[in-house]
Here is the input.
Amino acid sequence: MDYFAQQLINGLVLGSIYGLIAIGYTMVYGIVGMINFAHGDIFMIGGFIALITFLILVSFGLTAIPLILLVVLLVSMAITALYGWTVERIAYRPLRHSFRLAPMLSAIGMSFVLTNYSQVAQGARVKPVPPIITGGYTLHEGAGGFVVQLSNIQIIVVITTVVLLALFTWLVSSTRLGRDMRACEQDQTMAALLGVDVDRTISMTFVIGAALAAVAGMMYLLYYGLVDFFMGFVAGIKAFTAAVLGGIGSLPGAMLGGLAIGLIETFWSAYFSVEYKDVAAFSILIVVLIFLPTGLLGRPEVEKV
Amino acid sequence: MQASRAPGIAFIFKKALISALVALVLFSLMIGVRTEAGPQGLLVYETRFGDLAAMVAAVFGGSIVVELLRQWWGPVGTIRVVPPQVTSTLAVAGRWVAPVLLVFTFLVPVIFYDQRYILDLGILVLTYVMLGWGLNVVVGLAGLLDLGYVAFYAVGAYSYALLATNFGLSFWVCLPLAGILAAFWGVLLGFPVLRLRGDYLAIVTLAFGEIIRLVIINWQSLTGGPNGVSGIPRPTLFGIPLDNSDNGLAALLRIEFSPTHRIVFLFYLILALALLTNWVTIRLRRLPIGRAWEALREDEVACRALGINTTTTKLTAFATGAMFGGFAGAFFATRQGFISPESFTFQESALVLAIVVLGGMGSQLGVALAALAMIGGFELFRGLDQFRMLVFGMAMVLLMIWRPRGLIGHRAPTVFLERNQAISSDLVKEGHG
Here is the structure.
């Protein structure tokens, strides 16, 4: 039971990170109707920028951890958001009215560019950092000596996710930008006729998605203590799985799907085999699409002739 | 070009300045700072402001050049009238490209007999031509976007490798078996994804490809895991080995043995396999099943309304494409003599898909030319190993922007009334299956 509780905590933390990435996929899919294949790599770039900012701040002699974390978060979100904007501007906007496969392939190309760009710029090795946030709480000490722990970093990951999710839900439901986004999602031509700047709204969607991915990248860095240039690919597919599982286009669905994937992966590793945890996650994707093509919270797609 | 349409120098300058500023922010940390593991294992960093400045300057200059090119080319929507003489000359030339290319390919081993490098490159290009033609059945004809094609390539390669090393079966027995096994996996993948469309289909096939690769890596007792399978037997000419032994081909023909014989044999083998793929595809297009594939690509709902069984149509497309992938995989295994999961990553799937899309999806000649251009281009960057995939990714993005419809952007209709007319592919829908 204690083991189960510990895995539950680990799974929820991992799921929060997936959920943050999944929101980026689901928003872009909702508005533009394409899989932003490069989104996983945006997450990776976010992790790298957080790492580099952290190193610079530490070398300047800053010691106040909360201040460092805040600066790292802001810098990483800002620069990664600019990456998101640039990717949209270069690779997707010229293809918006092209046939459906073109943006998909352009996105795959962009994903290769970002992966190999960071490999060339920062080297192929895994970049480890010493634990930045230490300590935690012991929740329960079992009879067999097994200790259920909740570390501070896990608390920070979950709280950050919840706060961002709340902020983001507010943004989509009650601001001008959120209304524009929902309008573009329903009908771009009509939205344009009514005075919505469609180009700007789509750009902002990519920017917000990238900023959330940067937060996820930073959380990943804090939680696992490492980044490498290839981590975006698998994390990206899993986050996409999460978005599909929750119902693509739905924001709470993306978070729910992220948590589900995180839990499934953690429990699979804990009770079955670590080697096949990715196989389990990908199989879930296939199974979900067969039996629940619209996901948990998605709307059924109407087939138009 | 009207003067009023052309923005002034100030505009170009401003745009380039903004691009440079964006580039400065983007590259500031990723290029301006390099992290390395320090002496105690902790990360240290060093600054590279020179590289950063060079990159920003390159973006500034590049932006000006692009803007000037754009002005010279005119607005995007301009309709360019091509004189009829040029069109007809091109049409005549186009008719001769395929036969000339084919004859040239047949003569390659004769012309370049002494140049091992060119022969090896030729074999590589032909392997990708074959893979491209195989995937073309799924993507180009049936309109089903498949991002996990490399899985069937892997199934074919491992089928031959394991059957040959464990049971001593010959290449010619294993080749059909590899094709059948790959086709079986194609059907296995096809069943669950029958109801999916477009992007969902793409991501499921991608997941499927990754599952196959992960299973190969982790099922160490069968596949050798990351170490791969080595000592795969070389192919024989229907039982006659191509080696230096007494009953080898060279001894039988009473000519001096040379290792090049095997390379030439491999070249013609893959050429034959590729041509088989091409021939089968062309024939299938004229059969009801081929017509059904193309109808499915254009409109699935109309297809169903006309009584076409979309289930079997999709499954046969998957199975046929997978079978050719399996053949190519078996050839790959016998050519390399060693296979490992590293050869079957997502990058390979993306490369083959890029070849099909660049070739114009559905055009057999286009796919062949695209394979030549892609693999040839890859070889040019062999020295810059790190930058190869970077350049490949950039090329993919730029090609999509420049020619989203591929090099040969129109296709000859399969059926026509009275006169044959090429259709611009802007009028053709794709990938809604």
About this structure: The beta strands of chain B are 33-37, 43-47, 229-230, 338-339, 410-411, 423-424. Chain B touches chain A through 64 residues (CB under 8 Å).
